């Protein structure tokens, strides 16, 4: 995405309810197209209908003195916030950014329910990603390159990630059995988007039953897991590669670009059989229903238009090492 491109689904600041001078006038985001945490923030921005300008890193790196001068932690995503009175502040850490967006734009589609207990549950699911799920998946990244792959490390890391997925499934409220069909069941055809809003992380506790703060981090995590686990556990290149040299099976035309998968279309995509993410989804149908709902949400589809090719190209690059 070009640094000068403006993403503006809805006029910025229309949802703000703060006093004059403290209202936000401009959002600018430093991010990385490969980054799970950048994707988390962009899902939230799209879900709330907010405009932002993507910024190129000074000198192309987070290590540059120019970037460290405004962001001492040198981390992305990083959000520049300009207020109507001219003040400018930078926020880092994806969770902090999401909480700020919710506080600054409360009238935009809410990411948190009003009930205090439900809000805490949403925050727990979101924090579980940052503290447990993503660090477990991160252990697998170095193993994608065949030249440095260690079978024992792979076995332990895959088992650890699957254990985290089991814990995650236990945090999610149940959803109707038909919507929770595993990937090898035909009932999965109807899961996703507006047709099964209660399949999101908080289900009926979230306003409108739709996407909320607890959901934003997981599309990227599950996408990377579906790409990486077939390489490491099945010994095959992931079929989700879709013509980018990562799989032999073409992209199913029935998903209309959304990534939704019918029960008869999972073969060759690392979702079938007793291993890979297919085993995780089969063991935890609630995760499969959630995955399908996430993939069908417009905010996720917008982010995937950039993230998916970047992730696939990264895996392809690592497989050549």
Report on the architecture of this protein.
The chain has 321 residues and is an alpha+beta fold. It has two domains: 24-104, 3-Layer(aba) Sandwich (Glutaredoxin); 116-319, no CATH class. It has nine helices and four strands. It has a four-stranded mixed sheet, covered by helices on one side. Strand 3 (78-83) and strand 4 (88-92) form a beta hairpin. The longest helix has 23 residues, at 116-138. The chain is globular, with a radius of gyration of 20 Å. Residues 1-18, 184-197, 240-258 and 261-268 have low confidence and may be disordered.
Number of strands: 4
Low-pLDDT ranges: 1-18, 184-197, 240-258, 261-268
Describe the strand arrangement of the main beta sheet, using strand numbers: 2-1-3-4
Nearest-angstrom radius of gyration? 20 Å
Instruction: Give the biggest beta sheet.
Output: 4 strands, mixed
- Quaternary state of this entry equals single chain
Structural class, please? alpha+beta
Task: Name the helix and strand elements from N-terminus to C-terminus, one letter apiece.
Answer: EHEHEEHHHHHHH
Shape: globular
Measured as a percent range, the helix fraction is 40-55%
Mean pLDDT: 80
Beta-strand content: 5-15%
How many helical elements? 9
N- to C-terminal separation? 27 Å
Count of discrete structural domains: 2
């Amino acid at each position: 995405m070009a640094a000068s491109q403006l993403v503006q689904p809805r006029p910025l600041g229309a949802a703000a309810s703060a006093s004059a001078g403290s209202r936000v006038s401009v959002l600018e985001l430093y991010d990385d197209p490969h980054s799970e945490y950048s994707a988390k923030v962009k899902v939230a921005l799209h879900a709330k209908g907010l405009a932002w300008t993507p910024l190129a890193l000074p000198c192309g790196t987070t290590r540059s003195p120019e970037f460290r001068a405004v962001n001492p932690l040198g981390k992305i995503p990083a959000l520049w916030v300009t207020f109507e009175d001219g003040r400018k502040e930078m926020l880092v850490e994806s969770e902090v950014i999401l909480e700020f967006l919710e506080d600054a734009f409360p009238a935009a589609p809410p990411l948190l329910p009003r009930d205090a207990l439900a809000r805490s549950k949403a925050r727990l699911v979101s924090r579980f990603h940052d503290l447990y799920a993503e660090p477990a998946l991160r252990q697998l990244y170095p193993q994608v390159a065949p030249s440095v792959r260690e079978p024992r490390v792979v076995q332990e890391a895959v088992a650890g990630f699957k254990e985290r997925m089991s814990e995650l499934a236990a945090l999610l409220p149940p959803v109707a059995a038909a919507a929770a069909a595993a990937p090898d069941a035909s009932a999965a055809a109807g899961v996703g988007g507006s047709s099964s809003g209660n399949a999101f992380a908080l289900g009926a506790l979230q306003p409108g039953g739709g996407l909320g703060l607890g959901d934003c981090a997981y599309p990227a995590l599950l996408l990377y897991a579906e790409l990486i686990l077939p390489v490491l556990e099945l010994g095959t290149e992931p079929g989700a590669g879709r013509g980018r040299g990562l799989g032999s099976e073409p992209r199913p035309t029935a998903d209309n670009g959304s990534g939704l998968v019918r029960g008869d279309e999972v073969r060759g995509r690392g979702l079938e059989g007793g291993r890979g993410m297919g085993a995780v989804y089969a063991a935890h149908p609630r995760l499969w229903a959630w995955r399908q709902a996430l993939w069908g949400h417009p905010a996720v589809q917008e982010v995937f238009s950039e993230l998916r090719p970047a992730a696939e190209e990264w895996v392809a690059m690592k497989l050549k090492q």
